[in-house]
Design goal:
The protein is an alpha/beta fold and 442 residues long. 35% of the residues lie in helices and 22% in strands. The strands form 4 sheets. A 5-stranded parallel sheet has the order 2-1-3-4-5, with helices on both faces. Strands 13-14-15-17-16 form a 5-stranded mixed beta barrel.
Length: 442
Amino acid sequence: MPADAPSRPLAAVLTLGCKLNLADSGEIAHALCAAGFDVVDHVCEADAFVVNTCSVTHVADQKSRRLVRSIRRVAPGAAVAVTGCFPQSAGFDAATALGADFVSGTRDADKAALVALLAARTGTVAAPAPAATLLTRVFIKAQEGCNDVCAFCIVPRTRGREESRPPAFVANEVTRAVEAGAREVVITGTQLGAWGRDLPVPLAPHHLISALLERTEAPRIRFSSLQPQDITAELLALWADPRLMPHFHLALQSGSEPILAAMRRRYTAREFRDAAARIAAAVPGAAITTDVIAAFPGETEDDFADTLAFCDEIGFARLHCFPYSQRSRTVAARLPGQLPPEVKKARMARLLALGARLQARFHARFQGETRPVLWEELRTSPAGAPAWFGHTDNYIPVYGPGENLRNRVTPVRLGVPYADGMWGTPPGGSHDRHPQVLPGAS
């Protein structure tokens, strides 16, 4: 930039919640750059803030409120925009009362209006952005909204009806990310398995994946979240392409048949078991991760025991555990049998302990194997020394030695358990011990 060129105002885009929010934040950040901002993803002395909120639980609501209040307190003169699910759940007036100058929905027109408002408030001038920070993994939204009405979930009210983006649009977004340096793209949506059924010519998720494989050069593609009924033969056949990562996130929520019915989920535990078996047969070594809710209304000790036993049987690579959160305007909020906090706390502790055991068991299956790792960042290890951090194709967290590994994919031999993952070394290197200080990592 020439010495006499005006400086670009700074915008901070702060994200709470799910991968879909990360995708939305990425789109907002890109549009802000094009509008003349420099963009960061942390709290600092910025000219404008975008707070992308979550409302999936009461705790998420509290975090959203707290973040907006704190931004307004530390940056009283900045322009503050609030988007995401919280204003859709609590109301736009609630977000305005926290100090927001502008409150936005989650659709494309809403995001465009948000960027235009911030540009007008700060007087930016659209201009080519400076070279972007290299992004290792990029989240790309393929679908928005959900037509299902699960008893516990507020998201259909915050995200609206299902709307799929056409394959060409998603492919263009993937290409843009790859050209910017991304080594991995994560395709996400509110109800990703519903992708395509609202298009003029109805399609299914395997059509989208086929299009991305044919039309883009993405080295690694993850398909974020599906349900058992989405695991078809046509879908699994595509995983013969090594560019598709062997990682499936299937939301379980409960392993009890009566509780699944009360939750209004669209599958049974038996159907979930069959889907997991199809994945294991078609994609050897694949990770299956899941979400589980503890202490749903009416959940008995036997129901909860069924969930624990089911999770152990499936052998999930990771459990994302949540205590049931009573949300107004949902069916579950009015159900009898609401369980007390102490029951939620005790069941959560048991779920988390099981999750730790299952994760360790999954990691142990691959000790001594060599798998490709995408290195993401340099971290401080538990021993206090720097260590490179990344994920295998099947989403095992890996730490290891090396120089300048960021955004590179290298073969790694998986060794002993380390922090939340495993220690990895180049093939042929010693994998039974990790060094206290890594050569070349300073």
